[in-house]
Amino acid sequence: MKEHRIYNFNAGPAALPLPVLEEIQENFLNFAGSGMSITEISHRSKWFDAVIEDAIARTRRLLKLDDRFHVLFLQGGASLQFCMIPMNLLPEGKAADYVNTGTWSTKAIKEVKIQGKTVNVVASSEDRDFAYIPKNIPFNPDAAYVHITSNNTIKGTQWAEFPETGSVPIMADMSSDMMSRPFDPNPFGVIYAGAQKNIGPAGVCMVIIREDMLARVPQNLPTMLKYTTFSEKNSMFNTPPCFAVYTLQLVMKWLEETVGGLDKMAAINEKKAGMLYDFMDRSEFYRGTADTDSRSRMNVTFRLPSEALEQKFIQEATQAGFGGLKGHRSVGGCRASIYNATGIDAVSALVDFMKTFEKRNG
Ligand SMILES: *Cc1c(COP(=O)(O)O)cnc(C)c1O
Q1: In the structure, which protein residues have their CB atom closer than 6 angstroms to any atom of ligand 1?
Q2: Same-domain check for residues 221 and 271
Q3: Do 322 and 184 sit in the same domain of this protein?
Q4: Up-side HSE of residue 295: CA atoms within 13 Å toward CB?
Q5: Is residue 285 part of a domain?
Q6: Strands 95-100 and 146-149
Q7: What share of the chain is helix, strand, coil (3-state, %, to 5)?
Q8: Does the chain have fewer CB atoms within 10 Å around its N or its C terminus?
Q9: Considering the chain, what is the average pLDDT of its residues?
């Protein structure tokens, strides 16, 4: 029941827009007059073809992608991209630049090393527990590419602006801030995002790859690990994750038609994050963990004066109808993930709850 839904601050899988869930529910038994559920139809049918084409067209419009960019839907999550990028796009004899801004970047770096390829970690914020995004990075002009994590889901930091890398393409893991703000796609060779944070359910990874990257793909890779396999067959070399792609399509439709595009979405996200950070900045009780200039607008990480109070906070918040506020198990503390689908009303209610909790326990 709609009235039993909680304020969902999950980090991923995370909240989806309510109108999207309602549209799925309404059409679940009979999709587009087919007499079948979306989960029962062929991926080669005209019905699914319309779904995937619309998902791609909307993605192109939202991100202002020109014809050089292919929009692909892959499986294996963002984690498979950590290995596919060096496998496909880092030629023998070349090296890649990686910026290490946290857990996910660290995992991406590891996958290059496993392949015996050369990775230069050109900057890292590990010295202060990944609380900031490095500046003035000495990128190598002859690197095959630069890899960054645009939003660090666990540490609560985000690139406010993307780095200047000249002609070196940027590969960006945008899993947790894809479609949260507009940006210039042209410097990017690959943009990838596990859908389950900000653009859909688990089971599909959106991969946007620039045409010139496809020329780098070696012939001798396993078929399912080659970008060209998917770019040549419009993501339907084999069965795509149909239900996840359908849900993603509806999220893109919501972004375009209900929200009104990424400028509008960014303004809302800025407002939500501002409400939490402004409140915490005025409080002695709650302390944000990220440096001010590196704060994430998607994952607001914070601490209370003690671990005991953090436990109490999470427990009472859960009872009051706020879910997902526990920090990642690797870092502890608290985290409010405020992705696109989490409304201003939810953030406002959370700030009120935090105020009351502070009064009672501060
Ligand atoms: C969650 C997350 C991942 C891992 O995504 P999977 O789809 O589970 O592989 C990678 N990068 C970032 C930034 C994430 O937030």
Answers
A1: 12, 77-79, 104, 149, 153, 173, 175-176, 194, 197, 205
A2: no
A3: no
A4: 24
A5: yes
A6: parallel
A7: 40, 15, 40
A8: N
A9: 97
Same domain, 173 and 201: yes
Backbone torsions φ then ψ of 176, nearest 5 degrees: -105, 10
pTM of the model: 0.98
What's the CATH code of the domain at 349?
A: 3.90.1150.10
> Are residue 234 and residue 347 in the same domain, yes or no?
no
Range of the domain at 280: 261-361
Catalytic member of 117, 155, 197, 326: 197
Known catalytic residue at 104: yes
Q: Confirm whether 1 is domain-assigned.
A: no
Enclosing H/E stretch for 273: helix 262-282
Q: Which of 284, 361, 349 is nearest to 322 (CA)?
A: 349
Taking the chain, what is the end-to-end CA distance rounded to the nearest angstrom? 36
pLDDT in tens, 300-319: 999 999 999 999 999 999 99
Task: Write down the pLDDT at residue 362.
Answer: 86
Percent of the chain with pLDDT over 90: 98
Which of 202, 226, 259 is the endpoint of a domain?
A: 259
Count of domains in the chain?
2
What is the structure's pLDDT at 2?
Answer: 75
Confirm whether residue 228 is marked as ligand binding.
Answer: no
Per-residue pLDDT of 39-59, as tens digits, reads 999 999 999 999 999 999 999
- Residue 1: which pLDDT band, with cuts at 50, 70 and 90? low
The answer as to whether 127 is a domain residue is yes
173 counts as catalytic: yes
Q: Given ligand 1 and candidates 75, 83, 103, 104, which is best to mutate, with the most ligand atoms within 8 Å of its CB?
A: 104
